[in-house]
Amino acid sequence: MAQVRFAPFGDTIECAEGQPILSAALSQGYFLRYGCKHGGCGTCKVVVTDGDIEDSGSSFALTHAERSAGWALACSSRPLSDCVIDISAMGLTREEFLAGDRVETFDTVIDSVTDLPPTIRGVTLRLVSPPDAVYRRPVRQRRGSRGRYVPCFLDG
Ligand code: FES
Hints:
Elements: E1 2-7, E2 11-15, H1 21-27, E3 45-50, E4 53-55, H2 64-68, E5 71-73, E6 77-79, E7 83-86, H3 94-98, E8 107-116, E9 120-129
Parallel strand pairs: 1-7
Antiparallel strand pairs: 1-2, 3-5, 3-7, 4-6, 8-9
FE2/S2 (inorganic) cluster binds at residues 34-37, 39-44, 57, 61, 73, 75.
């Protein structure tokens, strides 16, 4: 069990052996920005300012230079000791950080499917309900980051 403290807010969580930092934070009622949750998109980049971690994320989402500079992916990093993790780059307010991970459900229909070469398809969804819904947690696109992730569950 390792203690992980989040700068700049100062809150501390406990991380079980082998548990990713993102998973521990979300399960203990905190929110960190994330997308894919498997080390592929780079949305959950943080800086390890103290302690040791093991990061199994891809070099696609986090370059060797970033890793050498102390950056890590919260979704694929497991603490090897007590750590301090700076989440300033996520741009969260304290209220957002403390709000936890809220799931919001929207009913949509598929408006169109577009081929986007070489292995990606664009899917346009039209909101059905609630009609005035707004996706409240846009993923901030950083230069060099690739794509956005919104979990979708399809009936049938
Ligand atoms: S959520 Fe961590 S790399 Fe995508």
